[in-house]
Amino acid sequence: MDFINRYSLSDKQRILTHLLTFISENKQQKFTRIIRFRTRYITIVLEDIYQPHNASAVLRTCDCFGVQDVHIIENKNKYEVNPDVALGSAKWLNLIKHNQAENNTTSCLSGLKEQGYQIVATTPHQHDFTPDSFPIGKKFALLFGTELHGLTPEAVSQADQFIRIPMVGFTESLNISVSAAILLHSLTSRLHSSDVDWRLTDEEETDIFIAWAAAVIKKPDLLIRKFMDNP
What we know:
The protein is α/β, with parallel strands linked by helices. The mean pLDDT is 89. The chain has a domain at 40-200: 3-Layer(aba) Sandwich (Alpha/beta knot). The chain contains nine helices and six strands; from the N terminus they run ααβαβαβαββαβααα. A six-stranded parallel beta sheet has the order 3-2-1-5-4-6, sandwiched between helices.
């Protein structure tokens, strides 16, 4: 569906209107309700996760809290969605895999910084924030590492901010899917009640709506090309 990007916003809106004629009214209403809470103000980055069920649980969390984009860094470990854990959430998200560079961590984080994201490492640090104190005035990428080793030194060195979940027990860390759920619940709740412009642009909303429609229609690319050739 990457060919959609060559069209103007007005053409995309026409395409979306056409695709919606193949979708039930109930499904359309559900899409409309859910997309109001989608955001790219927050994004998630998973660095070299080797336990696919945990990463797949993070996808479910992102869908539940409206985070549209998930960046997956594959240095040593290749990630495949676990369908029994993700429960279909992957098809409603944008999964961006980083596996082509010599150092995929640096490539991914540098690219996000160029897009205006601050990189927020989820690891204890002497200058860290909690979910309640973290400043939400600039869009940010939450960076998670593996359960065993955490984030790599390369990732930590490129972080702009650090965030931790306060704990009072003997165990020093949480499962990444649990950590992601706690952080996203707190941070999205704060965004929703703030004056921060966290919502999608009109074009982003249209692009995502088209992708969702395409996920439930047979051969959507052929329908789109036929429609645009014979509008």
